[in-house]
Design goal:
- By secondary structure, this protein is mainly alpha-helical.
- It has two domains: 106 residues, no CATH class; 78 residues, no CATH class.
- The protein contains eight helices and two strands, in the order ααααββαααα.
- It has a two-stranded antiparallel ribbon with strand order 1-2.
- A hairpin with a 2-residue loop joins strand 1 and strand 2.
- The longest helix is centred in the first third of the chain and has 21 residues.
- The radius of gyration is 20 Å and the shape is elongated.
Amino acid sequence: MEQETEKFIRKVEQKFKGGQVSITEFERLIKEWGQLIAVSCYEQHNMKQTYLNLNHLKFTVQWFKQQNADKSGHLQYFLDNMIQYIGVELESLTMYPEIAIETPEVNGTQFNTMRWTTNKRSLIELICALKEAGCINKGTIPLQKLVEHFGAIFGVDLKNYHQELYKIAARKPQDNTDDRAYFLNALAGKFNEKMLVL
């Protein structure tokens, strides 16, 4: 699967290298991508393996997109469409109850259908706090790696995390202090409320 995926991505890269691709060519490439997914990801009578295959493919394309962030905007847009196509395929698999029986593993890391349902800035605030407090790998893991990992777990695009950190730092402090941890304070408040009713 990896070789076929890389071969297709290189082909797409070459197509966009020459400039803008026509709508017809764009649609043809998307159809070809769909055919590659159908051949390489779907396992007959094994929806769990299909789910794993699709997730693996998604992370492969996301990695390539990140490694080529400086390339043509048209190429980036097409890669986004490739990722979105996989997302639609994954969504369609949720009708199969056997997939939810256990959490799938991709590259040794568990992924499931949990989604971060508040804003991205709050997630970045949480990740940065965990990093600074040395909660994960005693704080030795680079912030970028933590951000990528949490983004993958919750299905959130956090590539602009630097900008969000600057916005957090520029916040108006709460209650005449230097406190800018809006989300963490609210989180602690909710936790304390829960502890009072247990």
